[in-house]
Protein 1
Amino acid sequence: MFVNLCFKFSNMKKIILITIISIFLASCKDSTEDIVENDNINNSGDSNSNDGNSNGSGSGGNNSGGNIYVAGFVSDGAGNTTACYWKNGERVDLGPGELEDLVVVDGTVYSVGWTYGGSSHYWVGNESFELEGNAAEAYAIAVHDGDVYTTGRSSGACYWKNTKKTNLSAEDSSGYGISVSDDGDVFVGGYYQNNHHFVIPAKWKNGNRSNLSRPSGGDGEVQDVVIVDGTPYFFGMTLKPDNQGGLTPKASYWYGNTRKDLTNGGGFNEMIEGGEAYGGFVDGSDIYVAGKISHFGQYCADCPNNTEPGTGGSDAHYWYNGNIFDLPGGEWNDGWISTAYDIAVKDGLIVASGYVATETETQVPAVWINGELTKLEGDNTYGVAKAVFID
């Protein structure tokens, strides 16, 4: 029996939000030195395009209709979280935990999430299925020929077909994105830590691991996977050593044997620390990436944490074919501002999901529809919107 720990927002707010969504629906490289280790683990590079099955919230070319689904969670303020999704602004609660991803197949919502220190589940509609493994955390979902595929970690990176677990790596590792090709090849993206303590961006095809490129001496990880026209795309981040002995993060994506590091934008006076990507979408030849840009705070000897209030923090952005665009909104709240975790595109509609900070909360679930911010639960309900799917 599922519990509903969160209050519903007022009918008026629901009507306003649904009206906003309905209106929108109706109207509408930087050079780096690369290194790829040869770890003698087999990987073949072929995969086919999506055949109408749903391969995660970022899959391009297989959406139809006009409903916006958003996966995430809300909190009651006492640390109790509820996994939920929103359909055109109307919230559906599934149970305790956090929802990480969802897809829609023939009108049925498939979603996946986890409870901290507990277990992971996927849902078909409102029916829950527990995944094998101790302390499992599942982050992404795909559906192929009636089977449900999810990925995450349980004693290392793994993926599940329906509820049965397949281990991928036993090291410090995790899968974060999953997609399945027309002929049933399973692609997982994530990371593992090698013996030299580097964090390696990795892909697994049918359980066989291979490394993706990263800056020499740096790190990386994959957060999302989509397959379009037979090509798998992997979205995430890389970290490149800088002149001060640190690492500069950049949002990145990989396709074929190519890596693209995306611009962090701005200049030195903007105190940019770096960028990260969490989700991607491919629409024909157009590539959309969702993430954030982080800024250093200004030093203040007499301030808490030696940082000037109102400085630093991260801002939500998306990249379109390598060009960076700001996603507005969010108030500075103890270093929190905003982040975008996913993006979906259809018929001129660009929808990103994530969170913004408000005066009262460091994170409230939010979407941006063609750049316009909508807070799904208003200003005072803590939560995050992790994934978006346009059906």
Protein 2
Amino acid sequence: MLFILSILLLGVTAGDLDKEPRQEKTEMKIVYELFRLRNEHKADSAEQYYADTVRVYMKYLRNIPRKLITRSDKSFWKAHPKNKFEITAPVQIARVAGITIATVFGKEYLDGSTFPYEKIEIKFDRNKKIYSYRGFKWKKEN
């Protein structure tokens, strides 16, 4: 009886472990694709990764439709044509209370040469759509 119980528990555990990496892999692909599109200033293409209403976008935008994010990005890139973000560390994926959070560390080039370090926190809903995209100043430790 103990043998059968241990086999059942191993099956449940192995099944649960198998699902997590695939989910994280999907979010990881989305993050890298999103930053590629953002660096190419393709706001219309990046729009597909956002939820219909985004709770937080950058610092000041709250509860906005994704179309407004597209307009905001186009306006920003028009003012900063050499803007790009360079990822400097592996993307970290965590699941907290059923929410997938991707943390990205890197350099934000506004003019193409000078940069501050930033930490970007991206939260995904259960449909793998971004509902929160927030940037923070980050002091890199040497």
